[in-house]
Amino acid sequence: MTLHETKSSPIKQAASPDSAGWLSAKRKRALIPWLFLAPALIIFSWFKFIPMIQGLVMSFYKVNFNQPNEWVGLDNFTRAFADAELHAAVVNTLLYVVVTMFAAAILAFFLAMLLEGPARHLRFIRTAIFLPAVTSAAIIAEMWRILFNPTPNGVVNHILSWFGVADQGFLASSDQALGSSCCCISGRRCLTTW
């Protein structure tokens, strides 16, 4: 062999660092967030899904706390769907959800339209409207209790007395409790989500 002559042999290509080993660097990087999330996911599953599954299983049994549970199959469901109180509760719940959802959306839309613009006097109104979003729920509940107080000292009853309307038991009356609750929740949702 001369100085200019070299013997060439095929060069073995080195393994890339990403493909070396059973767990590549790319896969390790993708696995790290899941390792951090694993404890939270386990705890969440433990307190969310396991009780749901246990509740579903228990719905097929007559649960006796002093005796073994008795398998009843779908009897619990047939009895529940035949119950008039359940029907009333479902209707009230659906009515409550629909009324509060639409009332809050409509009220929020009109408030947004009202507050549109650069006028100086709107600063105070914007602050007053946003205040419930940062106010404690306990304070807001107390405010609604004062407003809907069934005595003549209640704010709403006092205003209604100007028009000759007798005192109303807003939250104490079964006829008015749903509407009063819808009013409270719609106002709260509107002022905190727009």
TrEMBL record:
Keyword Ribonucleoprotein (UniProt): no
A Gene Ontology cellular-component term: plasma membrane
Membrane spanning stretches: 31-50, 94-115, 127-147
UniProt subcellular location: Cell membrane
Record's protein name: N-Acetyl-D-glucosamine ABC transport system
Superkingdom of origin organism: Bacteria
Keyword terms of this UniProt record: Cell membrane, Membrane, Transmembrane, Transmembrane helix, Transport
Record keyword Cell membrane present: yes
SUPFAM superfamilies noted in UniProt: MetI-like (SSF161098)
PANTHER family: ABC TRANSPORTER PERMEASE PROTEIN, INNER MEMBRANE ABC TRANSPORTER PERMEASE PROTEIN YCJO
N-terminal signal peptide: none
Topology versus the membrane: Multi-pass membrane protein
